[in-house]
Design a protein that fits this description.
Radius of gyration: 20 Å
Helix content: 10-25%
CATH superfamily of the largest domain: Medium-chain alcohol dehydrogenases, catalytic domain
Structural class: alpha/beta
Strand content: 25-35%
Number of strands: 16
Length: 335
């Protein structure tokens, strides 16, 4: 293989995991404000399989996808080259980041990627590339919902700007889907702020979530959370869908529900209950990732890895995702 080319996983057509192809492609070159990263690991996220299945743009953005396309947004690796106008990073720096999201131009499923310097942060020295690659999208989603939005972009889902609720020792947070990527970060960030956390997941994840700090666990396969808990301050629902509104009845008046995926809500019902429903869209943010990185380095927050697959076996990683019940993150490794 020529030194001017590399290996990458590309999408030539939409469909199931079988459409992912391990191709030889041209090596990218960093443009202004960018660095070239030699990729060590790649995080696998829901938008990856949404794009594979036919999604071509995120809400509120113009379509940015043209086939063939290299999937992926989450990387950890080593800086190989820097543009002349970049002084935040140097060749040899270990970095991680969420690339160009919410566009679909991340191109992370590859041996090398050109990344905006503003999307990157130094990789925490205390964790390896696999764990670092599992952090960006899921960690920043939890951060921007619960801690700080960090940008002024209008929400594609609502007129009002999303505002995280204050979290402290007097706050109770319920996390639905707590064992997944966003959920396990949300649980830990809420605990970091001192909140009491109720974790909702299937029973197989109970010991894992209690180890992360959950104060109470509810197995949704045997119990209905809305019948067991009340007077909650914040519900972060990482599952969404038509059943998300049932969690409104767990909230106290003045409480907030944050559905990570759009659900089916009724304005009259929320007004009658005196609660707020707010949704936002995660965006790349190197500065916030650096803050999260300090928590990862200190061990205050950790990344759980469900499974790893070589980059060439991205199809198997997507098949694993399709089976569900993921505990933490799925990561691709790059030799």
């Amino acid at each position: 293989m020529s030194t001017d080319t590399m290996r990458a996983v590309r999408l030539h057509e939409h469909g199931g995991p079988e459409v992912l192809r391990y191709d030889e492609v041209p090596m990218p070159e960093p443009g202004p404000g960018e660095v070239l990263v030699r990729v060590s690991a790649v995080g696998v996220n829901p938008p990856d399989w949404y794009v594979r299945g036919g999604l071509t743009s995120m809400p509120g953005t113009e379509s940015t996808l043209s086939l063939p396309a290299i999937l992926g947004t989450d990387v950890s690796g080593v800086v190989e080259a820097v543009a002349e106008d970049v002084d935040a990073f140097a060749v040899g720096d270990e970095v991680f980041g969420l690339l160009r999201f919410p566009s679909f131009n991340g191109s992370a499923y590859a041996e090398y990627v050109a990344a905006r310097a503003s999307d990157l942060a130094l990789k925490p020295a205390g964790i390896d590339h696999v764990h670092a690659a599992g952090a960006p999208m899921a960690g920043l989603t939890a951060w921007q919902y619960l801690i700080e939005l960090g940008h002024d972009h209008p929400s594609p889902f609502q007129e009002a700007r999303h505002r995280p609720a204050p979290l402290d020792a007097g706050t109770t947070v319920l996390v639905n889907g707590a064992a997944g990527g966003v959920g396990h970060f949300a649980l830990q960030l809420a605990k970091w702020k001192g909140a009491q956390v109720i974790a909702v997941a299937s029973g197989a994840h109970e010991s894992f979530l209690r180890e992360l700090g959950a104060d109470r666990f509810i197995d949704y396969t045997t119990s209905r959370p809305e019948e067991l808990v009340h007077d909650i301050d914040v519900v972060l629902d990482t599952v969404g869908g038509p059943h998300s509104r049932r969690f409104l009845h767990t909230l106290k008046r003045g409480g907030s529900q944050f559905p990570v995926f759009p659900g089916d809500f009724d304005e009259e019902e929320t007004a009658k209950l005196g609660v707020t429903v707010s949704i936002t869209q995660v965006r790349s943010n190197g500065a916030q990732l650096a803050e999260l990185g300090r928590l990862l380095d200190a061990g205050t927050v950790r990344v759980a890895i469900d499974s790893t697959f070589p980059l060439a076996d991205a199809r198997a990683a997507h098949e694993r995702a399709a089976r569900g019940h993921i505990q933490g993150k799925i990561v691709l490794t790059v030799a």
